[in-house]
Amino acid sequence: MKKFLDEKFLLQNDTAIELYHSFAKPMPIIDYHNHLPPDQIANDICFENLTQVWLYGDHYKWRAMRTNGVNERFCTGNADDYAKFEQWAATVPSTMRNPLYHWTHLELQRYFDINALLSPDTAKDIYENASAKLRTNEYSVRNLLGKMNVKVLCTTDDPTDSLEHHKKIKDDGFEIKILPAYRPDKAMNVDDVAAFNAYADKLEKVADVSISTYDDYLKALKKSHDFFATMGCSVSDHGLEQLSVEDFTDIEIQQIFNRIRSGTSLSYDENQKFRSAMLIEFAKWDHEKGWVQQFHLGALRNNNARMMKQLGADTGWDSIGDFSQGKALAKFLNRLDESDQLAKTILYNLNPADNELMATMIGNFNDGSVAGKIQFGSAWWFLDQKDGMIKQINALSNMGLLSRFVGMLTDSRSFMSYPRHEYFRRILCNLFGQEIEDGELPHDMAHIGKLVEDICYHNANNYFKF
Ligand SMILES: [Zn+2]
Asked: What sign does the dihedral 283-285-288-289 (CA atoms) show?
């Protein structure tokens, strides 16, 4: 029997072990999409205890706790930090075969050198041991990133953000590059007219552009896009159910914008036309500046109205949606490609049924101008686990070039999530190692070791040019 979570974890043969330890493990991390709070990095905060770093913002854990019968008071509520931790510790033994079980123990090992399994019996010791470390400077958030060999990370930021925290981090001369990413979801969300108008008013102030027409609105957004670029941003991101690709005229969009600004709700068609117009504008700006555009497609969000009212978005009430992606995606990419305005693009699907669709879609627009120009992004959110990663890697291998893949990202809100890169790397090395051992790939460790290094680091480094 193999030992649980030792250095051979997920590596089922000697070749896989060699690939991981000699090639994958030493590679630095480029985490090109996450949701880490820039203010915490700017202020280089220390967490007071393990609950703060693990449970304050982690909807994955809250979902597991609720499913295990834990009251909301211990998830997002006002129970004290240790009481919350006790409930999490009591939940962990029930998370076996969910990635949380692996992540939890990898995080205890990698950050704190704690090899014990978390359970009600070990809760107190682990909490005290880890919390004592967290309060030391060695465990400040900047040092946590350093510990994981992170070279670059991109946060997720709204066009109205002042990026003051990014500025402070840069001015401090922090050696890890902390870059913003432009995520204008709110700028095109016209489902709620009042919220959209409040957003446009905010943008007006922040960008210092008076907004009375659609052209003014674009001018203000473009100004913020330009500002993000001056702050080192070279990546955009969109979280969408599916691409909007209606046909529209400029006059139609100007009229739709005027209707919104007068407080009138839009019809479904108008809503889709407006989104279609905005998406094309953002995409063209990204192309102009040589940015990478990312599309996270297919989440069905905020499904529990009662809990949405109580806790707001991003608190664990989302699921995989069954939106139709193919036709709209092809039409959108084609619109841009036709006029040679298609930026480097990464497509992420949340529904695993779309894996092969994505893996073949990218081939339609890889035109030889840049290696791996259109990417099938890493397994994401609900698919960010062993089975999901293997399926994504296999679809990409079978229908594209795995060797050109820009690899893993955390997409996380937690400073403790970096072992997910290790998780991915081990799975990747095991797939290569197994096929070498089976004689399906040549035993050429120099070449395959280089491919592994590329997927873990060099491809992303060359692709993003941070
Ligand atoms: Zn994300």
From this structure: negative
